[in-house]
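task queued by scheduler; priority normal; single chain, no ligands, no partner chains; default sampling; output format set to structure tokens
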Amino acid sequence: QWFPNLNGSTIKDITFLDSLTGFAVTTTNSSVQAYILKTTNGGDNWNIIYTYVPPSVNSGFTRIQFPNNSNTGYTATNYFDFFKTTDGGLNWTNYSNQPTGAEDFCAINEDTLFYVYSGGFGGGVYRSINGGINWTRIWTNGTSGNPDKIYMYDKNIGFTCNVASISKFRKTTDGGFNWFDINLTDAFLDIKLEDSLIGWKGSN
């Protein structure tokens, strides 16, 4: 595969809309830049389509998703910035209105979005029901034990965890308003459910 010079940034997340069109986001580099990339030939060639200049080297992109494989996509950062495209990545709008940084992010559809932040101040699960224009914290564990990973199968069923605290693996069945603990021996870095019962998770 051909890849542009990312100046030290590394890939943080990748998503594909079909066998040809895909997007990726990166961490920041020493020049305090992070990138959105796109491929239109199945990953053989990638091009930078957006350069993000955050306030610090710790504020890069965390995840990119295009719900329903449409032209509307979202990418979150672990700063206050949140980006949306409605034309397949040609243009990106920065809403700059996340209440906290987003350590992980999940888009259910073009309206309903979730992100999580594990910090003691402002930590918890956040939801938007208008495509990222406004966010509301719908759940928190207080000043500790908040999640840094989230996966939502649909608008009701989902999972969170804190990678550094494996006892905090949780599940919701009511759209994130209530969470109950699941006793598992490790956390997850990603989850994919085939349906409401069968799924896979990967950890480190």
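post-processing summary
- The chain has a mean pLDDT of 93.
- DSSP finds no helices and 18 strands in the chain.
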